[in-house]
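Our preliminary data section would be incomplete without showing what the modeling component actually yields. Below, a chain of 209 amino acids is followed by its predicted structure, encoded as tokens that our downstream tools consume directly.
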Amino acid sequence: MNMTSQQLIDEILEMASVVEAILDKCMDMKIPKDKLEELENKVNQFHIKIDDDSFKYIALKQPHARDLRIALSMMKINAQLERVADEAYNLRRYYNELQITPSAIKTLHDQVKKMIRGAIDALVTNNTYQATEVIKSDRYANELNREIMKEYVEKMKNNEMSFDEGLSGIRVAKNLERIGDLSTNIAEDVIFIVSGSDIRHQSQLKEQK
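Predicted structure:
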């Protein structure tokens, strides 16, 4: 097996392009659900292949230092991207139940798309500053999620919408908020690859504006 650590990254980037396509299309009602399912199946195939290639690379190449960090991180990013695709695909079912889409949901959708793009760009360029900006921006995604939940709860309490529609809106927002969390995890992995620093659970960084 002649695979290199850069080839593992290239596989992840191919997978990420499909994941971003699902995320971009998941709230577009002109796109049939079958198309999203087709894209998700491609992501699942990437998920299996990248895990397999990463295991083989570690076993056969016995990498050290940065190459080992890349291999370990590609396995983690692989799992994060697969979950992003799942969250985006699953939210479509709840989005179908909404009569009106609040502007905050559209804003949150745009925000998490920007976060996943920023995390992937940081991986391509080894840019820890950009990765850190993604992590910081998760605070805004969380605020939007809370705003949406509050709005839907108020509307349900005031009988301005049905319980089923309100719950669907909350679920859509929660799916999007999880995608923001997953983007943050990818950004943390980028920092680990470049610097060797594990910044997970360093809440002070995430709380910075």
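The longest helix spans residues 163-195. The chain has seven helices and no strands. Preliminary results of this kind motivate Aim 1 of the renewal.
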